[in-house]
Amino acid sequence: MPRFALIAAAILALSACSSGADKDPFADPYAGRSAASIYQEAEAQLNDGDPVKAGETFEELERVHPYSEWARRAMIMAAFAYYQGTEFDRAIAAAQRFLDFFPSDPDSPYAQYLIGMSWYDRILDVKRDQRAARMALQELEEVVRRYPDSEYAREAQLKIDLTRDQLAGQEMLVGRYYLGQGNYIAAINRFKVVLTRYQTTSHTPEALHRLVEAYLALGVEDEARTAAAVLGYNFPGSDWYQASYALLQGADIAPFENRESWISRAFRRVVTGSTL
Description:
Helix content: over 70%
Oligomer: single chain
Strand content: under 5%
Shape: elongated
């Protein structure tokens, strides 16, 4: 090969090596970029239907510009983006981080609401583990407790009511199973949870009727009569009361409330507004 050709080849090789060196695979793609440009990129990803990538980009903004106003905005947006992408654990982490840094910020109620909803959206049917429902109840109640005048408090309360109904439904499911197995004490304990913790749910009339069944089966007529009396007083037109009344008639007894019964005391506490 002619000498000039060898020299040219060497120059091309060196040039190629130099070009590759300029593209460091470990270089930070966000270094040197403005907070506004990173924020705009994350917004574009969110609008293009890639919320998880958007969440990651918002978090990169926090990392590169940690003390800027953009970082505060990016933090709550990361939580929102992860929630939209059903990355619920990451949404909770981002929202909690926002609350830790900005507990009195106007967006704090929304951050707390996102935490509650990130649990709420994972609630399974009553036959499955209800950890998500319990966590959702706890976090949504925080919205109402800490931010009662916020626009999210009412929405949180609606979700709280539905979550309490879900948890009561599981107690009823297990209670019915024990009742069917003749394990009356275990069944009573489950129905008691419904009356003391979830009394304002749709399951309360049935829980009272099931208590009538269980107490009659045990021969504890005083509590059976009280359960029926409380059921009749609070839900007089329900089918559950008609069923309970028929059971008592079959046992040749009538509904009568013992005011010292735990059933009666539980209902009085709700009426007076005391904590159960």
